[in-house]
Design brief:
The longest helix has 41 residues. Helix 2 packs antiparallel against helix 5. This protein is α+β, with helices and mostly antiparallel strands. The protein folds into two domains: 78 residues; 118 residues, no CATH class. The chain is built from five helices and seven strands; from the N terminus they run H-H-H-E-E-E-E-E-E-H-E-H.
Amino acid sequence: MTDSAHASPLASPLPRWRTARFWVLTVATWAMVALTFSLGRWQMSRADYKLELTLAVAARGQEPALSVSALIGSTDLPAQLHRRVALQGEWLSAHTVYLDNRPMQGRTGFWVLTPLKLAGSSRVVLVQRGWVPRDFADRSRLVPVVTAEGTAEVLGRMALSPGKLYEFKGEEQGRIRQNLRLDAFRTETGLDLLSALVVQTGEPSEGLLRQWDAPNTGVDKHHGYAFQWFALSALLAGLYGWFQGLAPLFLRRKNKRSHD
């Protein structure tokens, strides 16, 4: 008997689908596809919620304007967010504050905020009256703002607090500041300040511009994030299909043609 009769035949390789490497790669890939797709769905649900919020804000702006008595009598000021107001009161100009680094129409400047003592009451509401440009040669040189004495009429909309910017220092005081917190301002001034802000609207007056940006609920941002997650999910599925199916098939056909 020859040696070749005792030689064991070469073991044929296992099919790819029977290897541990194939199943680890398959499970990991489709788990990532499921995760990224679910994140895309979650971002779309957030966009739908924000869109409903945008419509609610628009509807709130069509409701009758709050009067002084209605504003003072409200037990849930956050529920009045974006509601229109028509107020009368007296400006407390000694407590006017300028919030720095607030742009308008592409120009850097200040938001001007002045407390308004509501007519017939000791209650005070802080009013974001408008915008003035900044003097780049001297930050402390402020544009004069006309503040009428006596009873003032203020039209605007409700907000919770002034927009906040990042700041390196702690709580600021003085006329020029980076940010302002209503509770801290109440303690600082001793005023009977409401826990809400009024953003004054209307045509420019008193040296102030009032072209405020519309409230941004971030719908476009969520749509952008959703697109990225869906694109990543499709990319993972496509790469898996290529390397596990189409690429080997393509290579086999190419090798067959080269041997014919």
